[in-house]
Amino acid sequence: MSRQPDEGVSAPFEVTVPMRPAVLATAGAVLLVLILLYVETYNMTPPILEGYPGDAFFPRMVLAFCIIWAVIVVARGILLSQAAAAARVEAPYVSLHWLEFVSVIGLVLVYALLLERVGFEITTVALMMALLVPRLLAAPGATLARAMLAGLALSIATMLILYAGLGPGLKTALPLQFLPIYIKP
Amino acid sequence: MEVLVGHLLGAVSALSSPTILAIMLAGVVIGIVLGAMPGFGSSQALALLFPLTFAMSVDQAVIFFLAVYSAVEYGSSIPAILIRTPGTGASAVTVLDGYTMARKGLARKALRISLYTGCLGGFISTLIFIVAGTSLGHVALMFGPGELFAVGVFGLSIVASFFGRDAARGFLAAGIGLLLATVGSSGFGGMRFDFGQDYLMDGIPLVVVIIAFLAGPEAFRLLVEHRRTVETPEEAAAADAGDRNRITPQEAKALIPTVVRSSLIGTAIGIVPGAGASVAAMLAYSEEKRWSKRPEAFGTGIPEGIAAPECSNNAVVAGTLVPSLSLGIPGSGGAAILLGVLISKGVVPGPLLFRDHGTFVMTVFVGLLLINIMMLIVGLIGNRPFGLVARVPMRLLGPFVLILVVVGSYAYANYTAHVIMVLVLSAIGYWFERVSIPVVPIVLAFIMGPIIEENLNRALTITGGDVGAVLSRPITITILLLALATAIYSIRSMLRAAVLATERPGGNGP
């Protein structure tokens, strides 16, 4: 069903890195954040009565627990890397189509920022169009005009279904521009 | 007995309402449709539908969610059988015999076996709970704050160790979930990890965590990886396989022992927090193969090979409700969301639920019986059209999932910050999944975090801050020792896998 990339070979706009450094970098970054958060617990209010739990009691326990496991993940990544790589206990490479990844994040950020200013109707249709048209174009024999038309129809239908379900259906206060408002925020 | 009959009558009365029946039907249809979409598990489906429950009463919301939860398990077997793409991990085992049977031109027979045995599994499991569930609730009443803290820790130890191939990453993920639960106002009047930001002062809402770590990464996966999805003509043709598919009485009779065994396995696995439908399906399949007189035929498209995993993964639903309702420990991602619905409606899961809301508990289980009957009817009517859903190209599915994620997180409180939170956490969740750090323990731990913290704080306050007094209670110490044993077992398994890896260079690993 799925076509996997060749090991270690990146497609355009795709970054492929060996799994071990990816896991190590991720666990290392998590460990750093956990240590900073542990330091942050010393800024929390101390308990009113000595010996009783206070604001920082539970977070410190959890952070200590997390730090121990993060250290284990990092240590295993360093010490057992050769063996794990030889035995292929997990995919040897992790790849990420960074352009798609960044595009999705960017589009949702723009959507979130414009939603209340421009209105639910226009932003929703625009976001759906931006996502659907390139994917419709990927179909064999697709043309830009057809993809735009189909994308627009699907986007408007999606917006109307969401509006009907959340607006009149569940009385949710959506930031509407021209469709009827059923509840004031 | 009198109490049981009283609760039963109350449940039947509540469930005879046309609104509840309509909601149940909607849940079954939506659940089958979502389950039939490749990549949609019960957790993702329930996370997406969470906002729909805002306007429902507690009975309606729970029945709706149970209908979706049960139907997703059946729906996920449709793409598993037709195009070798399991909708959920639990249906991965169904591929072995289901897809093989479909390739022989018996796709609809495979779908029917999956439907009948799935419904029977759910039915038997629910009956077991109706008979024994109340007793379990009474046992749970013996639990105080210290014991509940220990139960929470035990649940976490199982949850973390059951996800992913690396227990260390599972425990790390569970810890991250616990940490996220500490953000915002503490129970002592102070603030934690808010960094002066208004949107963090109330903490991270449960709905944000559920959408961000379950539905969000799936949306990213569908959108970012859409270029890799190519359906072959053979796979598409398999969905149109012939209609000469009746299940003979002999075949049905031969499947009875399989259904009984797999239902019991599914119910038992469901009761263990964190085990879930995937484990149940795998265990039922391997047990069925062990009991079979023709083990060599498994994998060649035989009815038992479909019945065992399908029956057990549906039986898990009722089993999962035992720890969820009686102890407040979610047995799976789906149960975690269900608990989220209960909590958001002001119903506190735990031992007192059985005593104070007996009719509600009975409504849930009688409702499950009805849901299974309804699923059977809907499944039979929609056998062919449901199959068409599985053929939605994955590259087109992504945008629809993303817009549901974004609009759902905004609609929760009309707050843009929640959309940004979901976006950031979803991106992190997607990357975590790419590097095999499981995200489901994050959600489960987030749900259990407040339960663990509140009970620990309460127990310490009662004993004047004496940790020894809290831990020395017999039930508490027993459960904590069990948690320790589970953690040690997980670590030993992890180390053994590492040793095997070094001894078998170039092998395929465990």
Please characterize this protein's 3D structure:
The complex is a heterodimer of chains A (185) and B (510). In chain A, helix 1 (19-40) packs antiparallel against helix 2 and helix 4 (98-118) runs antiparallel to helix 5. Chain A has helices at 19-40, 57-79, 81-87, 98-118, 120-137, 144-169; strands at residues 14-18, 93-97. Chain A has a two-stranded antiparallel sheet with strand order 1-2. Chain A is mostly helical. The model of chain A is unreliable at 1-6 (pLDDT under 50). The two termini of chain A are 46 Å apart. With 510 residues, chain B is an all-alpha fold. Chain B is 75% helix and 1% strand. Chain B has a two-stranded antiparallel ribbon. In chain B, helix 7 (107-140) packs parallel to helix 13 (249-271). The longest helix of chain B is centred in the N-terminal third of the chain and has 34 residues, at 107-140. The radius of gyration of chain B is 22 Å and the shape is globular.
Q: What class would the helix/strand composition of chain B place it in?
A: mainly alpha
Distance between the termini of chain A: 46 Å
Q: Which two protein chains have the largest interface (Cβ within 8 Å of the partner's Cβ), and how many residues from each?
A: A-B, 83 and 84 residues
Spatial strand order of the main sheet of chain A: 1-2
Order of helices and strands of chain B: HHHHHHHHHEEHHHHHHHHHHHHHHH
- Strands side by side in the biggest sheet of chain B: 1-2
How much β-strand is present in the residues of chain A?
5-15%
Helix content of chain A: 55-70%
- Low-confidence region ranges of chain A: 1-6
Q: How big is the Rg of chain A?
A: 25 Å
Strand tally of chain B, please?
A: 2
Radius of gyration of chain B, rounded? 22 Å
Biggest sheet architecture of chain B:
2 strands, antiparallel
Largest beta-sheet details of chain A: 2 strands, antiparallel
Question: What is the number of beta strands of chain A?
Answer: 2
Q: Residue-averaged pLDDT of chain A, rounded?
A: 84
